[in-house]
Amino acid sequence: MEITVQASVYSAERTAKNATIHLESAQAVCDLPPTLTQNCIAYPPFINSHDHLVGNWDPRAGDNRPYSNTDIWVEEMKYSASYLERNKVWINDGTFRLLEGTAYRLYMLGCYKNLFSGCVAVQDHGPNQKPAYYDSFPIHVIRDYRQCHSISLGNWWGGKSAREEWESTNGEMPFITHLAEGTDERSKSCYPRFKELGLAQPNTLIVHGIAMTPEDIADCAANGVSICVCPESNIFLIGKTIDMDACRKYGVNVVIGTDSTMSGSTNILTEIRRFREIFPHIPANEIFAMITANAQRALLLDDSYGTLQESNKHLLLMAAHTSDPYENLFHSTMHDVELLVYDGTPVYGNAAMLNHFHHDPADYFFFAHDGHKRFVKGHPEKISAEIDAALGYHKHLPYIPY
Ligand SMILES: [Zn+2]
To answer: How far is the CA of 139 from the centre of ligand 1 (A)?
Structure first.
């Protein structure tokens, strides 16, 4: 399928005006008519490098902010009004066996939060689940990883020790952990301990790193460690985020994550806007790389992710609001996604686009936004209805567009 767009963003370094993109889709009926796509900009779909899908409840928890470290928040949030409301929909019994009970209500809507904001891949940080979990999603919830909750709290939610988890990666999948999420001595001691355990490795992804010193950050760069920044969550809980100038000076591979909406922002699009408010001197294309190519590298994804190429099986078309295609992202919301394709299948967008793909309407949910007919793969509306029934009132979740 050929798609002609106003501009195409191939990578953080390369764009083209009036480009034609090739999409590999077994469902394609014909090329997309230019009348539908000429006001669109094509991007590689985004990658959210840090989320907790079951944690995407709203509003946020954090009555005693700022915290000197988030180990305090992890315990305290269990008594927050938001967490208690979520208990009516799903009770976290501490086993993290997410295929059981009603956890699907949370993790599936959490996945849709990512889909609705243009992501086709998301790192769901928690204990590894059975294959059926990862098979159930309309986009790529990354299954090949090993993890630890944090160095300060250990793997309290499931999994082996940090060292054992890292060893079981065989260097072939990412090892992911929260680290140094605070400003106190406890947080500052995390990286030296991490380093001593031999965990500063090229397949390691450190999440947060707020208390890391410039020397710690230089050491990450020297060892090929990637760092995930969650700006909204960090500022909300701690009042501070990582030393980005040191990350840039030493050339660390930096990626961006939303964290869950219990502490972070609405979705990846609001997250990059927040990143820019905090770091206004960082160029738009550099931020774009953090949610595309840098994330592909950090999460060891195959090269169909992170860049656009001659031929693509994942594709994102966004409405154009400005002529600079990188700047355009900072003016975009989930309603600006004209078409999102994952592995050749259209999963979200303008319903007029879907007519050019073979599809069974029963596989999709259609809804109106601002007078426009929209589609999404699957039936998140059924889960929303289940949640409303369990609560006895309508629950507004800010990342849901219908
Ligand atoms: Zn987290």
So the answer is: 20
